[in-house]
Records
---
Amino acid sequence: MPLKKTSAQEITLSVIKTACSNCNLQELCLPYGLNETEMSKLDELVSTRRKIKRGDHLYRAGEGFESIYAIRAGFFKTDVLLEDGRDQVTGFQMAGELLGLDGISTEHHSCNAVALEDSEVCIIPFPRLEGLSREIVALQHHFHKVMSREIVRDHGVMMLLGTMRAEERLAAFLLNLSQRFTARGYSHAEFYLRMTREEIGSYLGLKLETVSRAFSRFQEEGFIAVQQKHIRILDIPGLKKLMTHQSA
Amino acid sequence: MPLKKTSAQEITLSVIKTACSNCNLQELCLPYGLNETEMSKLDELVSTRRKIKRGDHLYRAGEGFESIYAIRAGFFKTDVLLEDGRDQVTGFQMAGELLGLDGISTEHHSCNAVALEDSEVCIIPFPRLEGLSREIVALQHHFHKVMSREIVRDHGVMMLLGTMRAEERLAAFLLNLSQRFTARGYSHAEFYLRMTREEIGSYLGLKLETVSRAFSRFQEEGFIAVQQKHIRILDIPGLKKLMTHQSA
DNA sequence: GGGGCACGTTGACCTGGATCAAAGGCTTCC
DNA sequence: GGAAGCCTTTGATCCAGGTCAACGTGCCCC
């Protein structure tokens, strides 16, 4: 909308919108499965948002843990640092996904969360979430499912890192992104990568040159069209076959 | 004890012992942090045990999920299967650790759990656990911590698979086992591996020959003494240095 | 609007770990 | 208690992906 923005207007808009009950990410996010009464209780809890500029940290490894975050808009990566300076991207997160679950175990965050584009998160104070999930069975159960899903996802990544060759890894990565964009109502075949080749490589356990070469190879083979961060997927079955067919 | 076992005796013994409140794994397991009243409520819930023979499955990928399991005694591995037949060990679990958390998300198990020695687990019906953790704050919170810890552990494995070289991986693996045996009151320096070289390799993203060679190399260097599955760790600092020092 | 710089591509070469192969040593199960 | 087969070790060779290097490209900020 072409309204001239004043800070008063921004505040108003933000207050109006900060409610799970009229958020279009409900189905992907924490409120999944709640009825109206329950939803309005959740609204009270999730009342604050925070904007994160591209490149800024939402939290850093070692910081005290107080809240988990639901991504309202934008795109994040999480990474872990080893003492000797090596690091690895452990995941890329998009709208509707939760950040910060790693912090529950020690009450300190165990990884960094960095915005890869200007983003906004809903702040969910964890003790209050635990309180509410003692009242609302559906919320409790869904939260457990979300944590469990994260464990299953991690097993998938371990599988990828442990058994797949470079091109299989990249194919799996692209198919996964495609599927997640689809779930959010975006094109499954065309998207912008928010991360660099190096970040993709770090996530996939490959060097950036290898990622770049694999992209080129996929383009030659007609599986995708790449131009920098702009990706068009041309042959999903082809990518899938590539993933399962190779090696023993 | 040299008692002649009759099935009546076995049942009695089993009934007596099946209670968190007098289990010596309390501190490592689900009951951590509960007071006496709470513990006795948990006792009601965790009333059944199950013995699993070496090589048998506790559950299989695809099976319906109903319960999580606390390992009372023994040693397990979990593994994931890809459509094309490749598989990977996603973890090794020992006494006091929980199995089955992966099943919550889809209500079906997503991996196989196999006993690596004759083992015994306590069956924890999940809906009842959710019920009880709505009543007992400490149980709820601890359960969340356990799930979160699993996520953090998985990130560590991703790190290992994504950034470490073969010998670093094996060093990390041995140090991790040592530390977990210590926590259970066993020697930190001497233990039997319950898994084969192939299973270690699968977990670490290496081939069995590479694992074997790395063991031999560690022995030559004086870090450990290996004889088949019997390991003595001779130089913990040496192994630690090996893990962090190498490469960039 | 232009200059600088981070990001991306491609080539040449190298190496760590995979693969293939063969020979013991343990365990287990009749 | 002995045989069969699994597990482990070790050697020789190979290759996928890492490393090093140089050059393009487009984005962003002044």
Note: The CA atoms of residues 181 and 187 of chain A lie 7 Å apart.
---
Amino acid sequence: MRRDIFQAIADPTRRAIITLIALQAMTPNALAEHFDTSRQAVSKHLRILTECELVRQEHKGREIYYQLEVNKMKEIDKWLQQFRKIWEERFDNLDKLLAKMKKK
Amino acid sequence: MRRDIFQAIADPTRRAIITLIALQAMTPNALAEHFDTSRQAVSKHLRILTECELVRQEHKGREIYYQLEVNKMKEIDKWLQQFRKIWEERFDNLDKLLAKMKKK
DNA sequence: TATATACGCAACCGATTGATTTCATAATAT
DNA sequence: ATATTATGAAATCAATCGGTTGCGTATATA
């Protein structure tokens, strides 16, 4: 079982789930209504998201509310960091070039 | 063919390729030396990365140098933006709470 | 010109994925 | 107590994935 965040966010339905529960915790049934798929399929996606700790359960009677673990999302941000450095660098270079051209 | 960036970065080998060529353009052969897999397998990964425009080819004689399209990486950053807002908000709230506790 | 090198592409294969169907279980409502 | 509702879990299936092997082609070298 290769359960990491990157594999988790690879699926468009899972990304949509993440976006939905980022705003407020939701039950599997409520989530399923937003998609063109069965409740069970959504449940399976939630299991994957739970396994890689992107999502937290909150039991409330017979309902289970799923909430986004926002902090876990930062791991993607952390991976992006290395490239952010590069694209900012390039932006700086472009900036300097433009400044240089202006001077002339 | 479901070829989007999120699916592209789901594979750990592809993420490693991205990291490697972020520093400098490389040929498939040079890349393959870094992995425990065949040149053809790397080539296949490069094809996927090329298809979703995360990578650009630069022909040079019989060699093909693959270079990272850093700008494309920003699309992941853009998707993360919505959550960044949330986690900064939470951090602010924690900050205010701490300030409040200090006052007392 | 013959050979070696760098590479992409197609065929194939086992493992994984995402979905459905069916079932079991626990909480709530009648 | 019985029916209903909310849910997870297991079995199953077609599609996709990541890998290998074998081939064709273009460029470089002998």
Note: Chain B has a mean pLDDT of 92.
